[in-house]
Amino acid sequence: MNATPAANDPSLSSVVLAELKKGGFSPARLNEAQVFCEAFFARIGGGDAHLHTPVQWAALVGSLLEFMQQRRGGHASVRVLNAADGHAGRSLLQIVTDDMPFLVDTVSMIVSAKLQIHAVIHPVLKVARDASGKLLGLGGDAGSAESLMHFEIDRVADAAEQSQLEAQVAAALDDVRAAVGDWSAMRDKALAVANELPQRKLPLDAASVQEASDFMRWIAAENFTFLGYREYEVADADGDRVLRAVDASGLGILRKSDRSMAPRSLRTLAASELPQSGSTDAIILTKTNARSHVHRSGYMDYIGVLQFGADGRAVAEQRFLGLFSSNAYMARPQDVPLVRHKVETVLVRSGLKRDSYSGKSLRHILETLPREELFQSTEDELFATAMGILELRQRARTRLFMRRDRYGRFFTCMVFVPRDRFNTSVRERIESLLGAALHAEQRDSSVQMGEAVLARLTIVLRPKIGDQPCYDLAELEQGVAGIVRNWHDEVRDALVRLRGEHEGVVLANRYARALPAGYVEDVRPAVAAEDVYQLSQLAGDNALRMSFYHPPKAPETLRFKVYRSGGDIALSEVLPQLENLGLRVLTEHVYEVSGEAPLSIQDFEVQPVGKLTFSVEQVGALFEDAFEQIWRGNAENDGFNRLVLGAKLSWRQVAMLRGYCKYLLQTGATFSQSYMEETLNRYPAIAGLLVELFLAKFDPRREALSADELKAAGATLTAEMLALIPANVQAAQPGLIGELGASLSKPRDAQIQAVENAIGILLENVASLDEDRILRSFVKLIRATLRTSFFQQWDGAYRDYISYKFDSHLLPDLPKPVPYREIWVCAPRVEGIHLRFGAVARGGLRWSDRREDFRTEVLGLVKAQMVKNTVIVPVGSKGGFFVKKAPAGGDRDAQLAEGIACYRLFINGLLDITDNLVDGKVVNPHDVVRHDADDPYLVVAADKGTATFSDIANAISIEHNYWLGDAFASGGSHGYDHKGMGITAKGAWESVKRHFRALGRDCQSEDFTCVGIGDMSGDVFGNGMLLSEHTLLVAAFDHRHVFLDPNPDAARSFVERQRLFKVPRSSWDDYDKSLISAGGGVYPRSAKSIPISPEVRVALGLKPDVEHLAPSDLLSAILKAPVDLLWNGGIGTYIKSSGETHAEVSDRANNALRINGADVRAKIIGEGGNLGMTQKGRIEAAQKGVLLNTDFIDNSAGVDTSDHEVNIKILLNDAVQRGELSFDARNVQLAAMTDEVGQLVLWDNYRQNQAITLMEHQSVHRIGSMAHFIRTLEAEGTLDRQVENLPSEAELTERKSRGLGLTRPELAVLLSYDKIRLFQQLLDSDVPEDPYLSKELVRYFPVPLHEKYAAHMQRHRLKREIIATAVTNSTINRMGATFMMRMQEDTGQGPAAIAKAYTAAREILEARELWAQIEALDARVAEDTQIDAIKQIWSLLRHMTRWLLNRPGGSLDIAANVERYQAGVSALRKALPDVLTPTGKGDFSSSQEKWEGLGLPAELALRMARMPELRAALDMVEVSQLSGQPIEKVAGVFYELGEALDLEWLRDQIEALPVEGHWHAQARGSLLDELNHQHRALSLQVLNLGGGSKDVSPVQAWLQRDDATLQYTRGMLAEILTQNADYPIASVAVRRLAQLAQVPVG
User: Fold this and answer.
1) Residue 372: pLDDT band by 50, 70, 90 thresholds?
2) Exposure string for 681-713, b = 16+ CB within 10 A, e = fewer
3) Cβ 378 vs Cβ 428: under 8 Å
4) Can you tell me the distance from the alpha carbon of 326 to that of 298, in angstroms, rounded to the nearest whole number?
5) What's phi and psi for 853, nearest 5 deg?
6) Dist. CA 822–CA 836, nearest whole Å
């Protein structure tokens, strides 16, 4: 029999042959070897070719050739070898025999019974041998086919075992030879029997005989493998009838005599006892007790054909042994004689219709039954089995069918088991049960697993021959069922007990069957029932349930189970969570539950890190809830969570403490979070009391508990404190816990005090100073907390965050400046802070990237915001938030989405605890206990990272029904588009224009060179570079590119910048390169080096040898460029001072390119962007001559516009709410006023610049006053000069000695701080209620609103703030930073009185009109001329204000003063210069000519010449009213008297007196007041004297009197005139005048 050819390398044969040749094979042997190799290697498997090296193959082939040299005919040569080389661990079984069927499978069957086969090679060769069996030749046509079998098997080391194996193989091959040799004869015997049966006298009907005959023909038709045949006859022996073999009748394996059977008593033949009916009586079908040694393993089939005598008794038997072939097993039962009759009988007896479902099912059952059952069963047995199986189709369950062989040799058991419950363990246990019951010595089993619900296990059990075991079939079936149902059914029963019949069965069917095998092996059914119920409660994706418990069977252990839909939680996630919750994981078991949605059970054995203070029953629910919230990301995973078990806190209570810790870290606390965690966990009693303090202060229900609730709460608190407070403390303070419990029934303040007392006692037992500080800081924080959202629920659920509102001044260790209020929002996804410096404050919210210290960042920004906001109604505020779980990978859209989500949380957190206004009344937030006053004003704006978020904030405001609506956040869809208006850039450009005017240039009509930071797509940079068509932009850079245009064409480059500005997201790379001048270009900042052309070298003022620069060096060069303007519209800090380090700047991204202020060569810096320079850098640049302000001055127009937007919306929303205006009409009105709002804002920028310029011009000679102002602000705690980088006392002294004043950046700080100070002072006064100042309220709004909404303005929620802001700005912008302080010190009056007096003076003088005329001369006259004119007005206003404040008995009512003095002053002004003395007229004419010469129009020059002469105007009006004389006459007396007595000189001397402090100021003020009073008194005396004539004036008449006092006084004044007056001299002179005024005249 040829083996199947296998693909292999054909060269192997030749390689091996070559090796044989090397080994010395003779030519003849080589020829044999060649034939052998070709046949041998043609049959080797592809994977077996590499079993040996060519040398080893050659040795093996040589050995086989040697083995083949001699073989006895008709016998197989068999040997077992243990080769020494190349076959370690293996033996070789080699066989040479005649080729015939069944060789390989027979040998394989023998070997594999005990050993593993590793390789089989089976070539078949033509072999020629002589009579003695000697090999004559291989190949060719001569000879016969021989099989060579080469097996490589497990090593057989023992020689006896080798011999045994050889003998077994040889015997098996003898049987093969015998069976194959007699196969035809045995087949002929079968056919002969078939032919003879009809002629035999059988006690059967003809049909049965024919069926038996057909069966014999059927087996002969290749349906039976004949292995042996023998005939037997019945004979008498020793009085018994025996069955005896007929000599020489044996064939095949029964041919040999040793296979003969001894005579056997006929009584042992079952056939003798069978009823004589049916064909099975003629043919016996059964199994032998012997296994086949040929072809395949298994018990041989036995076919016995009986011959009967005349009496109907068996007299002989023809016996066939063999194996039914595969054809027989595949044949349809209807086609098999004998079987088909039984099948038909069963079908008929069933009574089922053949085409019915049950009929078809029965037919299928019969067709799929084991063929042995069909052959060997009787009709009754087959019917019972088949119908029983059919019943299982209707009700699937475990069943056992047992059939005993009619000869008692074996039992066939068919067990039907639910397929889902069937496994190897079940099979083995069933086999064991049945084997034990039936005394089986041998058993064979097979399994059928189809698509049916039931699996079929067929077991053949063979007891010892002669053994007749007794058994109870029902009991055995029950035992089998018990094996099958032992776990799942118990789970089902447990579920029924747990949840009831219906639900229990449903749950069992749904879940129990889905549990994995490992779970079934590990978990008891009762526990599994609870697990199944927990699984059933998982609703939706990602659902989670838990169980934290002591197992009943092992109460000393602690377990934690997690049930989840969506798969198990990674151990890498679970371990940190459990560790932070105070548990150590010992073991983990994970069970995946199959189904539509994946479910899982994770079972952890855990161990507490320390001893559990509370039982699992007490803290289990808290623990489970905490674990879920941590896993879901609703709570953070850190050491604070140990307080859940350690202090019996809920996860939200832990989150509250964590929130306080996070805030402390943001304030710069010196302790780390981990240290704070450890401290609170070390003192769980204090941690619990901190929570109790928080509850006592903020729980809305705390004072509303019923008696039962109080009792329960007291019992709980007492039990917890008993467990937590150390025993020594309880012993020392026996009443401590009782007092805590009793306090629950007291008012809130008493409860708070009781808890604080308890915390104080426990703190005494804290040994570590650091830990004491940490714990006390938590107490201080809770004390400073004014509100919290902790107890708020929205739609029945808590927010994902906790908001805290702090009174910052109650926290002593906060870095300065200390806010008025702050709101801290803390959540796992986001942390945010909002700092306010007043009740009405505004500022942007930024998306910070500084996780550890974004509060510090915000605090730094709010400093600038505070001074920037001095121009608007609200004071400064600022907010920032940090995204804690930003998506990894840098996906921009994902990052933005998370940022927006966190921004929403932050905004909600702010509004949740903010008061609202409904119908003008304050409405407090729900479930918030307030410890502060009404606080309904909260306004935000965009900032870095949130430029497009205003609509989001406003939508949240509207969701909250917040009274500001979409005025909550400026710049939204229905607000003013700052970029579209270009307002921020335009505001900064007002500074640029003023700086150019200071240089005597007009940047709007003259070309100027510029470098910049930014690109044309940006708001500030892009708009700024379009504000003058004369901008020559030489160079610019942003974070992407460097732009160089060394000699730009102004007109063409302006047009190109316009184009770029309109291109969305444009960059410098989009600039039309053809428009760039020679030597220029656009270069990426990522370049390694950038070429420097000669033109660029000149433009940037670089050294001649510079040809290339690294990008950072080039950017530094741009910042140092010798140009007219450096325009900053970018983000980052680019200029510092020489004394600052880069680290102090805190902008690492620009360290490489940042320059010092001293290195700036630009003439002007415009700060459109924030933080482009440090304050010290500004001061350093200013001291080098650079003209600049500060960022908060230059770019304040944006915040100013937003403020106007908010306040206009508040105004118009009042009309909307009253039904007077629709929302859409409101938006139309807003849009229509865009230009007017812009103009209002730009005037603020203009006037702030003007104020700084005025202060700058006064700075040198008023530096002492400014130094005094700085000291005053410091003494009040308002200003920290180091923080604001203002000069020290020593520096101020040094500047004074050098004739230097303060720089513009320093003056900007003073200006802003004075506004901050004055605003609050005015807001706290009655100034906002002054009816006259309602004009300031109206002037704040655009003109279209003035008349229509005048009534609404009076109802405006921020009316007082608007008026206070307007008065502050109008006063400080015109009078400078020290005006208020000096006026207070000079007059002793308060800010409100001064503001009223100043306003009255301004109106009396009609200064607004005068200022407007001066400001209209911008770029037409020199700036110094304008400032000198303004200084003249300033001086007069200062004097008139002081006069009004010091008028004895005078009113400060603005309207009354205006009415009293304005007409008289106006008349006096018009009377000038006619009422002056001749000398005065000459001076007046000179002054007028001077002003005209400086470029002022004639009318304005006239007015300016009149200014000095109006110094005593109010005195004159007063005298005029007292005397009843016309103002012209009174004026003539005043001027003449003043000239005669040199009073103006004396007044100038007094005003020039040095002021070194408060008392100097008071002294100087008193002297001036007294001088004015005496001048007025003397003038009145002159007028009352009468006298005079046409030729002699009243004054001359008064002077010509013969009065010794008068003469003495005139003499003294004449003497003083010769020297500079000091305080004593001036005091004497004024006192002498007073004496003169008291002398009676008549």
Assistant:
1) confident
2) bebbbbbbbbbbbbbbbbbeebeebeeeeeeeb
3) no
4) 14
5) -145, 40
6) 6
Supply 1054's token pair: 């302006």
Cα–Cα distance measured from residue 420 to residue 432, given in angstroms and rounded to the nearest whole number: 21
Residue type, 774: I
* Cis ω before 1473 (30° cut-off from 0): yes
Report the chain's terminal Cα–Cα distance, integer Å.
167
C-alpha distances out from residue 901 to 321, 845, 1569, Å:
85, 14, 65
Q: What percent of the chain has pLDDT over 70?
A: 96
Spatial neighbors of 1331 by CB under 8 A, at least 6 apart, are: 1455
pLDDT band at 314 (very low <50, low <70, confident <90, very high): confident
Q: Which of 1080, 1065, 1153 lies closest to 1115 in space, CA to CA?
A: 1153
Q: Give 1421-1434 as a DSSP string.
A: S-HHHHHHHHHHHH
Over residues 395-446, the pLDDT tens digits come to: 788 899 999 988 788 899 999 998 877 888 889 999 999 999 999 888 888 8
Global pTM?
A: 0.69
Specify the amino acid at residue 1536. Answer: E
- Per residue, the 3-state secondary structure of 226-243, as one string, reads EEEEEEEEEEEECCEEEE
- Provide the β-strand partners of residue 165: none
Q: Give the bridge partners for 304, in sequence order.
A: 284, 319
Q: Are 1205 and 1237 contacting, i.e. CB atoms less than 8 angstroms apart?
A: yes
Q: How far apart are CA 1596 and CA 1590, in angstroms?
A: 11
- How far CA 576 is from CA of 627, 800, 829, 842, 1136, in Å, comes to 11, 22, 19, 42, 45
CA nearest 940: which of 848, 1009, 844? 844
Q: What angle do CA 328, 331, 337 make, to 5 degrees?
A: 80
Three-state SS sequence of 1518-1580: HHHHHHCCCHHHHHHHHHHHHHHCCHHHHHHHHHCCCCCCHHHHHHHHHHHHHHHHHHHHHHH
Tell me the residue length of the chain: 1642
CA 1066 from chain center: how many Å? 31
Q: How far apart are CA 652 and CA 786, in angstroms?
A: 19
Question: Would residue 878 show up in a list of annotated catalytic residues for this protein?
Answer: yes
Q: Which residues pair with 93 in a beta bridge?
A: 80, 151
Contact 274, 267 (CB under 8 A): no
Q: How far apart are CA 1266 and CA 1310, in angstroms?
A: 8
Question: What tokens does 84 get?
Answer: 């020494």
* CA pair distance 650, 662, nearest whole angstrom: 18
Stretch 73-96: mean pLDDT, rounded? 83
Count how many Cα atoms sit within 13 Å of the Cα of residue 231 in the half-sphere of its side chain.
Answer: 12
Q: Mind listing the pLDDT tens digit for each residue in 1336-1346?
A: 899 999 999 99
> What is the per-residue pLDDT across 545-584, written as a single tens digit (0 to 9) for each?
999 989 888 888 999 999 999 878 888 888 999 999 999 9
Q: Which of 863, 878, 993, 1396 is catalytic?
A: 878
Q: Which of 8-22, 320-334, 1172-1186 has the lowest mean pLDDT?
A: 8-22
DSSP SS3 for 674: helix
Please tell me whether residue 900 adopts helix, strand or coil conformation.
helix
Question: Is 1000 a residue whose pLDDT tops 90?
Answer: yes
* 1189, 1308 contact by CB (below 8 A): yes
Query: Which residues share a beta bridge with 206?
Result: none
Q: How far is CA 763 from CA 325, 777, 857, in A?
A: 94, 12, 34
pLDDT top residue among 997 and 256? 997
SS3 content of the chain, % helix, strand, coil (to 5): 55, 15, 30
Provide mean pLDDT across the span 740-753: 94
